[in-house]
Amino acid sequence: MNRTFFAAVAAVVLLAPIHSIVADDDTELSDAAKYRETVMEAVASSFGGFIAVYLGKVEPSSKDKHLIANTRALAISSTLIGDLVPAGSEGGDALPLIWTEMDTYQKYSQDATAATAELARAAESGDRAAMGKAFKAVGTSCKTCHDKFREDD
Ligand code: HEC
User: How far apart are CA 36 and CA 150, in angstroms?
Assistant: First the structure.
């Protein structure tokens, strides 16, 4: 696995529409739908922070601290994904399929929770190869759910 591969994963996962900055879009959304987008942005920000340091785009003085803090934040915010789709929170880019295939949505959120926890453990251990492997698994977990349950636009 090389840097180009990781950059491609990062692009697919992170180049998502950020709706909270589009005022018109937000006016019709319930608070629960806006909350989903806010938490999802937190997930993406901490993953993006990890990626920037892991790929050497930035070189903070204590690199390990940044890898660990970003992946811990990612692992924590990812535990919320399963709770972001209560009844009545339809809208945004969340496809209606979520509410008819809730078990699958919940399974994918558990996969993301497990994958991000593994990445946090890998960062803690300082093992770059383990981080690379876990990075890929996290990217796959984001993409699997988005491909099925998030509208492409
Ligand atoms: C179990 C499903 C699921 C998983 C796992 C998941 N997402 Fe999402 N994500 C969604 C859904 C659904 C939306 C659309 C939310 C909306 O528009 O209401 C979304 C939206 C987003 C957005 C756009 C937020 C906005 O402001 O509109 C970003 C960025 C994002 N996800 C990043 C990630 C990253 C990074 C990961 C993996 C670490 C991830 N997601 C994992 C389901 C998931």
Answer: 12
Q: Which residue type sits at 153? A: D
Does residue 41's CB lie within 6 angstroms of at least one atom of ligand 1? yes
Q: Using alpha carbons only, what angle is made at residue 36 by residues 32 and 41, rounded to the nearest 5 degrees?
A: 145
Nearest C-alpha to atom 1 of ligand 1 is from which residue? 109
Counting Cβ atoms within 10 Å, is residue 142 exposed (0-12), middle (13-18) or buried (19+)?
A: buried
Angstrom distance (rounded) from CA 70 to CA 41: 13
Nearest C-alpha neighbor of 48 from the set 137, 132, 143, 139 = 139
pLDDT tens-digit map of 119-139: 999 999 999 999 999 999 999
The whole-angstrom separation of Cα 99 and Cα 102 is 5
Phi, psi dihedrals of residue 119, rounded to the nearest 5°: -65, -40
